[in-house]
Recover the amino acids of this structure.
């Protein structure tokens, strides 16, 4: 029996977001010495908090790199036409369409695309369509792709014209004699000895390009700028009372603090300077007691940025002690505040995220809709977290997942609002941590697609990452 001992060199802690959010997705962290104990089964040493080490001692540097797997990020654009398809309609020709199937590992097929119907023709030309390569062949360029051709019927009993098989590798050859396919109906072929085919389908064009991802932009240098806006209206209740949503308990965080920390702890990794503007709205502020809907939590109107999420939480708690909760609940001022900053940086180098935490119904719905419609043209997203037990119908309306919001006859160019009710993720007890992770996931789920929609609409491509030097850094 041999016992192999290994020397413990040091340890470092980080999140994946820290690595990805670093320049070039390259993060350097100092290794520090922790104390070391043997693995319970004696296989290898592990750091532990016991006597025998010099805590905090620097032991060199570790370099961490993150790479997004690029397999099957390509999107193929294809166009087909057909010639001399079978006539299926008694009083006309045919109304043909095609159905594409991806083959699975078990030999079954899964529908991955349907073309549009071209009416009353035996020689259709279908519109070009784009499809992710992973959807077409699951990354296997030689996997069979089955294509069925039908004649559309109003009652849904579409008549089968025929089928053919191909592969991504074949399609990638583009327009050529390799991509002219006989459409064969197996039943007709069995019945008729002289049967050749039910027409032909020809690939007219094939192009493929890489689909840019959220991480492409982050790694290319796009910075997320995170702004917080907190509801200080009187409907939250007296902050000195435990029933208030703003109550500062010495034992646990209130709903506002929990929501802020859940979202902020994740998004701050993508913000290089870790400075977050923090605003309040709906309160009377000193020294003259006027009602403000975009006052700085740190008291500095010229620079409302706070250092890290901890700095935002500290400024929020200080504000609770110096302002008077009032009203009404107006969103438009904080939306326009961030929009003014976003309007100054339209080149894709920065993207702005506004987190609004609120407890109630919006008082300036018309103005807020107008502000959001205008902001939809900018590199900007809005997250609304609703705390408390109020009805949030207005918030759901602003979240344009089902119906894109409009104002003065103008429809928002993009859906930029995500609303999440905080109560859906608060279970308390041992499961609270898991609930908070779920809240963070839900709140941030739409940011990547919203950022991509802005970049794509403006034709902005991510900045290529310079190749890493092969030289080993000096010790």
């Amino acid at each position: 029996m041999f016992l192999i001992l290994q020397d413990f060199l040091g340890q470092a802690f980080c999140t994946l977001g820290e690595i990805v959010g670093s320049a070039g997705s390259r993060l350097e962290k100092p290794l520090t010495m922790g104390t070391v104990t043997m693995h319970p089964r004696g296989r290898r040493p592990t750091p532990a908090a016991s006597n025998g080490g010099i805590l905090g001692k620097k032991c060199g540097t570790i370099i961490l790199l993150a790479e997004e797997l690029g397999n099957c990020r390509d999107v193929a654009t294809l166009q087909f036409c057909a010639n001399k398809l079978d006539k299926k309609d008694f009083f006309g020709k045919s109304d043909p369409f095609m159905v594409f199937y991806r083959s699975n590992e078990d030999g079954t097929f899964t529908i991955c695309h349907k073309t549009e119907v071209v009416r009353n023709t035996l020689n259709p030309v279908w519109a070009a369509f784009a499809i992710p390569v992973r959807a077409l062949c699951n990354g296997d360029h030689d996997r069979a792709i089955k294509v069925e051709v039908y004649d559309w019927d109003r009652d849904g009993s579409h008549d089968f014209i025929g089928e053919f098989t191909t592969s991504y590798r074949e399609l990638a050859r583009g327009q050529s004699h390799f991509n002219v396919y006989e459409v064969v109906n197996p039943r007709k072929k069995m019945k008729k000895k002289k049967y050749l085919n039910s027409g032909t389908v020809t690939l007219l064009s094939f192009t493929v390009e890489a689909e840019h991802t959220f991480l492409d932009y982050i790694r290319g240098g796009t910075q997320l700028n995170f702004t917080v806006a907190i509801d200080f209206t009187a409907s939250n209740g007296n902050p000195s009372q435990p029933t208030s949503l703003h109550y500062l308990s010495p034992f646990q965080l209130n709903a506002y603090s929990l929501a802020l920390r859940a979202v902020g702890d994740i998004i701050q990794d993508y913000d290089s300077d870790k400075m977050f503007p923090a605003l309040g709205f709906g309160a009377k502020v000193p020294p003259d007691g006027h009602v403000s809907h975009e006052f700085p939590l740190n008291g500095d109107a010229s620079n409302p940025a706070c250092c890290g999420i901890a700095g935002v939480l500290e400024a929020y708690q200080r504000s609770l002690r110096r302002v008077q909760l009032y009203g009404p609940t107006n969103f438009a001022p904080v939306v326009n505040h961030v929009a003014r900053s976003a309007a100054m940086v339209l080149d894709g180098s920065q993207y702005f995220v506004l987190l609004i935490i609120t407890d109630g119904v919006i008082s300036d719905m018309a103005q807020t809709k107008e502000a959001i419609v205008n902001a939809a043209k900018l590199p900007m997203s809005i997250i609304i977290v609703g705390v408390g037990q109020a009805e949030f119908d207005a918030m759901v309306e602003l979240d344009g997942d089902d119906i894109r919001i409009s104002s003065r006859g103008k429809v928002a160019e993009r859906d930029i609002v995500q609303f999440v009710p905080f109560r859906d993720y608060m279970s308390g007890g041992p499961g609270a941590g898991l609930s908070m992770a779920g809240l963070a996931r839900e709140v941030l789920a739409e940011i990547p697609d919203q950022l991509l929609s802005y970049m794509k609409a403006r034709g902005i491509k991510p900045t290529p990452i310079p190749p890493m030097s092969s030289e080993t850094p000096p010790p």
